[in-house]
Amino acid sequence: DGFLQRAQTAVIKSNLNPVWNEELKLSVPQNYGALKVILDSILFTEQQVFDQDVLSSNDMMGEADVDLQPMITAATAFGDPDLLADMQIGKWLQSNDNALIRDSTINIIDGKIKQEVSLKLQNVESGGIDLELEWIPLAQ
């Protein structure tokens, strides 16, 4: 309880379909919860003065929760990924209880534990986000 970390990407202005190619690192505490991803729009356009239908200067574009448990379980069960060949070691299944667009596999790729996650954004009309997670043990 009470453990909060924040990481922020660069701001992409005036774009309803932003693309980030950034790496953000967060440590995972012993008593972890879901990773919450929040997207805010920061749009500044001359059109805002005339068009009441555009987003205000800091509207929520959605949020998504990433369950870290499948990745952590897979990572700890298989030990040192450098010693293993490329293979699937886990899966987070799409269900009515999560916002996954499709099943999310956890793989060892070139000695790294990675997970591709595609989520429907919550608290907005529509939208989605694609993330690639990588598990990095504290020893590295």
Automatic annotation (TrEMBL):
It comes from the Eukaryota. Signal peptide: none annotated. PROSITE patterns: C2. Coiled coil: none annotated. This is C2 domain-containing protein. GO terms for molecular function: GTPase activator activity; phospholipid binding. It comes from Ensete ventricosum. InterPro entries: ARF_GAP_AGD11/12/13, C2_dom, C2_domain_sf. Pfam families: C2. Residues 1-82 form the C2 domain. Transmembrane segments: none annotated. SUPFAM superfamilies: C2 domain (Calcium/lipid-binding domain, CaLB).
